[in-house]
Structure formats: C-alpha cells, structure tokens
Design brief:
46% of the residues lie in helices and 23% in strands. A hairpin with a 3-residue loop joins strand 3 and strand 4. Helix 8 packs antiparallel against helix 9. The longest helix has 25 residues. It is globular and about 65 Å long.
Length: 356
C-alpha cells in the first residue's frame, strides 16, 4: 500500500482573487500557510479481484471507473488510465466543508499516491497543475487555484497568478523568531458550522464574470490588501498584519451575502472586544473556522470564545506539502496492477486501430 499525507491550509491574504473570472482580467495574489492538519490517502492494489473500492464518508465498490460516484477519485483514476483494480481509503483530521481546502488536499494526495504507484516521481508544481486541470477544467468547479498549490507545496507561500493562469510560487523566508511569533499569534476557532463553498463561490464567480462593480472592486481591494499583508509579514510588522485582516474581512463580506451572518458577526465583535486585532472566516465563508490574530490577552480571548460555544483548533505550520509517508506495494500487488494497466493500454491501442 501507499500512504500520502497532505496538509490543509489557512489563507492569510488575497482569498478569492485566485478564481479565473478575476485573475484573467486583473491577475491574482494569494498568501497562505499549510498547517499540520492533514488528509491521509491509502491506495492499495487488489490481488484476487479487479474491483474498485473507494472509502470516505461513504463506501463504494464498483467494477469500472465510470461507476465511481466520488468525482475527484473518478477523474484522478481516469487521468492515469486506471479503469479497475484499485482501493482508495481517505482519513482526514478535520471534516470537509470547514474552509481549509480539504477537497484539493484529497485530490493532490491521491495524485501523489497514483504517481508513486506508477513509479513516477511528481514535483509539487506538477501535482498542483494536474489537480487544477481536474478540478477547474474537467469538473468545471467554480473554484480557484490556491487550494491545489497549497496542498502540494505547504509552507508560508505566496502565489502570484498571471492572467494566463500561470502560477509563480514563492516561499516567504522569515527568521525563526518571527515565524514562531506569527504561528503563536494566529488562533483558530471552530464555528460548528460546515457548508458547501461551491454555492458561495459560484455566486462570486458569476458576479465577477458579469463585472458586478461591487464584487470586482472588493476583489481588487482584497488583492491589494493581500500584497500589503505579505509585505507587512516579511518586514516583521505582525501587528499591521492583524489590522489588515480586519480591513480584509470588511471587503470580503461585500462579495456575497452568504459569507457572514449575524452569529458570525457577533463572535467576531466579541473577539475584538477581548484582544483580537483582526480576523476572518476561513475559506469562502459562511462557517468553518474563525481565524483571529491576537498578540496579548490570549487566555481571556480563549475563555470568552469557549464560553460562546467555539472550540479552538491548536495547530502548527506545515512546511513539507504533500508527501508519501509509506510506500510498500507487494510483489503480487505490483504484478496485478501492471497486468491490468498493460491490458488497458493494449485494449486502447486495439480500439484505436479498429476505429482507424
């Protein structure tokens, strides 16, 4: 079996500017960081049958890849020409729908495992590009490019996205003390609300495509704030980063009605009254995690938010990105996989000749 470990991410600046509807006209910018909460993918090759088994919150067992209901698993297998004879099991530290990029972490981790199964080493850049191809081009999801790149690269990372879609990845190099201060001062609290980000992002995407002036203006502000956040952190001015988070949150709420609600607003104001300098809801909004920046009185902030019903997520930064943590495919498993793969290739070639 092959096991991969792929980090979730927290966006620090520029969120939403990675959607094609925006970056194709204005370019995008994202600053995010990988965290030590992971998606684990276990990929194995059956020996005595040719079934496809996919286990997540549901369990599937089918005969052919076209029957797989899990869209990411199905399209990843198709991408590699795997039509049958595979087992995929996923386990996550954090539930889906909480704004930390779990779907792309699943896909990047699976692509990494399949490359390893085929004994084809893949770079983080390749994994990210393949994941973007599947999610944006094949599945036509109304999402951006940050989740795939952050899952592949991890670290404290800036993504410059050009209008043609190319992504320049830059790791922010901070001294150890500054990095630890940043890590120590960012607090995450679970709102107990999970949501499908697709609906929120679809509205934002449609508004950007139709050049809705409020949405486009807000996204341009968010991009500028993201660049300023990156500069503030690089210069060691972390307090200014916290202040910019507050400005960012006000701009983000103008993107869609679903990004915030009265309860989230109340929690946010409570946090600011008790030591938080700034913050925002993770991901597309509407639920998930409330991310806050706080330099002093953290104990008081934790106490009041815990009393308000929020649970803190303790975390550290991850600097490794998606990685293979276990790779032992049995001899029989390898032979069975190669036999299936060769049969598929031969069948495809025969079909091509027959058609010709």
């Amino acid at each position: 079996m092959i096991i991969t470990r792929t980090p979730f991410r927290v966006t620090l600046g520029g969120g939403g500017t990675d959607l094609p509807s925006f970056y194709r006209a204005h370019g995008g910018f994202i600053l995010a960081v990988g965290i030590d909460k992971y998606m684990y993918l276990n990929v194995n090759t059956p020996i005595v049958d040719d079934k496809i088994r996919v286990r997540y919150t549901s369990s599937e067992m089918v005969d052919h890849v076209d029957e797989v209901k899990h869209t990411l698993a199905r399209e990843a297998l198709k991408y590699f020409g795997v039509t049958n004879g595979i087992e995929i099991v996923s386990i996550a530290d954090i539930p889906a729908g909480t704004g930390l990029g779990s779907s792309s972490s699943y896909l990047v981790g699976l692509l990494n495992a399949l490359h390893t199964l085929l004994q084809d080493q893949a770079t983080p850049q390749k994994l990210a590009e393949e994941a973007c191809q599947i999610e944006l081009e094949v599945l036509k999801k109304p999402i951006g490019k940050q989740d795939q790149y952050m899952a592949a690269f991890g670290g404290l990372t800036a993504l410059d996205i050009s209008p043609d879609g190319r992504v320049c990845v830059t790791r922010l190099e901070l001294d150890v003390d500054l990095l630890e201060s940043l890590e120590h001062n960012i607090l995450m609290f679970y709102t107990n609300e999970m949501r499908d980000a697709t609906a929120i992002l679809k509205k934002q995407d449609e508004a950007t495509r139709t050049k809705d002036s409020t949405v486009v203006k807000s996204l341009r502000e968010i991009k500028d704030i993201g660049l300023e956040i990156s500069e503030a952190i690089s210069r060691g001015n972390l307090r200014h980063f916290g202040e910019l988070l507050d400005v960012h949150w006000q701009s983000k709420k103008r993107l869609s009605e679903g990004i915030s609600n009265p309860q989230i607003d109340a929690w946010y104001e409570l946090a600011k009254e008790n030591g938080a300098i700034g913050g925002k809801i993770s991901g597309a909004g509407g639920g998930g995690f409330l991310m806050l920046y706080c330099e002093e009185n953290k104990a008081r902030l934790r106490e009041v938010l815990r009393a308000a019903g929020l649970r803190e997520l303790k975390f550290r930064f991850d600097f490794e990105g998606s990685k293979v943590v276990f790779d032992v495919v049995s001899r029989d498993g390898r032979l069975a996989h190669n036999h299936r793969h060769n049969n598929h290739e031969n069948g495809f070639a025969l079909a091509q000749r027959t058609t010709a």
